[in-house]
Write a structure and sequence with these properties.
single chain, mainly alpha, 4 helices, 89% helix, 0% strand
Length: 150
């Protein structure tokens, strides 16, 4: 833009500077050259303004794209948090289901024992003996084996 102003100033001052020593034809030629330079400068200014408009549009598009990217990242983080919460809930539900199954089996055994008291008593005695008295049996040593053979 400053270049255009310099050319206008030059075109205004040139005829005055050359008035004393220049011919009319040379002044006209200089004026024509200055007019052409001014026209080119105006075209340059218009081109620069169009380029600035394009750059502004590109900057706005980039800002919108950045906003969209930020929104997408936030949504992805939210989805990750939701997935983690769902996973934890599933683990908790699985643990709860296991404990409920254990409780159900215990209640089923209790109900069976109440509806079959004689069988339950025999079953409990066998189960009790196998479980609690198994540790009381001593392993047979080599000395005991040889004593039994004699």
């Amino acid at each position: 833009m400053n270049k255009g102003r310099h050319i206008v100033l030059l075109s205004a001052l040139l005829p005055m500077a050359l008035a004393g020593c220049a011919t009319t034809g040379s002044v006209k030629r200089a004026q024509a050259a200055a007019d052409q330079a001014q026209a080119r400068a105006d075209e340059g200014v218009m081109t620069a303004q169009r380029a600035q408009g394009s750059a502004d549009s590109a900057a706005q598009a980039a800002a919108q794209a950045q906003g969209s990217a930020n929104n997408a990242m936030t949504a992805a983080q939210s989805a990750g948090s939701a997935a983690q919460a769902a996973s934890m809930a599933a683990q908790s539900a699985g643990s709860r289901a296991d404990s409920l199954e254990t409780r159900l089996r215990s209640l089923e055994r209790w109900k069976w024992a109440k509806t079959h008291p004689k069988k339950a008593k025999k079953h409990h005695a066998r189960h009790h003996q196998a479980k609690h008295h198994a540790g009381l049996r001593r392993p047979v040593t080599a000395d005991q084996t040889s004593a039994q053979k004699m």
